[in-house]
Amino acid sequence: TLIWRIILVVTLLAVALMYMVRRAAHRxxxxxxxxxxxxxxxxxxxxxxxxxxxxxLFLSPNxxxxxxxxxxxxxxxxxxxxxxxxxxxDRESALSTMEQQLESGLHIDAEYRxxxxxxxxxxxxxxxxxxxxxxxxxxxxxxxxxxxxxKEAAQAKxxxxxxxxxxxxxxxxxxxxxxxxxxxxxxSAQWLQTFGRxxxxxxxxxxxxxxxxxxxxxxxxxxxxxAVRQRPHHVKIALDLRLYDAEGQARWYRIEAxxxxxxx
Length: 264
Fold this sequence. Notes:
There is one protein chain. This protein has helices spanning about 1-40, 60-65, 70-80, 90-105, 150-170, 190-195, 220-230, and strands at about 45-50, 55-60, 110-115, 120-130, 140-145, 175-180, 185, 235-245, 250-260. By secondary structure, the protein is α+β, with helices and mostly antiparallel strands.
C-alpha cells in the first residue's frame, strides 16, 4: 500500500511538472510570436549581434530586404563580424563613436554607409543598446533606419546653397533677412564689406544713429519699413535711396524686400 501511494504521489507530481513545463513553453511560444509580429510590422531593420566585432544573432527580413541579400548570402559575407558590414571609409569613425557611447553607458546612435548587394551605398542610422542576460553572453540589439533620402536631400540643399551664394557674389547682390517678430537680423558677408558695419535696414531709427541713410531719404525709408510689414504675403516692395558706404561716400542703392510667413 505504501509503495502504491508513493507511486501515485510521484505520478501526480510528474503530471503537474509536465503541465507547468508545457504551460511555460506555450507562454514562451506566444511571446516569441508576438515578438516576430512586432518585428515584421517595423518597416526598418532589426538586428542582434554579439558585440561590435562579434557575429550576428538575429536579422529581420526587412533589414535583409534593405540591402538586397538573402539570409544565407548576408551571413556568408558578414555573419561573423558586425564591423565588416560598415563601409570601409566610414568604419573607423563609426566604430569609434559606438565604442565611446557604449563605454559611457549610452545607447548607440550612429550613422554610416553599408554596401548593398547591388553595389549601391546606403546611409544607415543605427540606434541600439546592449542587453545583459542572466544566463548567457550579453549582446547588442538595434533598429536600423535607411536615411539615404535624407542625406541626399541635405547634400542637394548644400550644393544649391553654394550655387545660390556664388551667383549672388558674382552679381554684387547683398542679402539680408529679419524675423519681424523676434527682430533677429542677418546679412551676407558682402554687407559688412560694403558698409563697414551691420545695421538693420528694416528697423525704425528715430534717433538717426543706426542706419547710414542720406538725410533727404529718411522719410522714404521710414515709409518703406512700414510698408514691408503691412504688404500681403510674397508681394515685393522696392525703394531707391542713398546710403553711406564704409568710406563715407553716399551711393545709390535699390532695396527689394518681401514679407514671408510660416505656417503659424
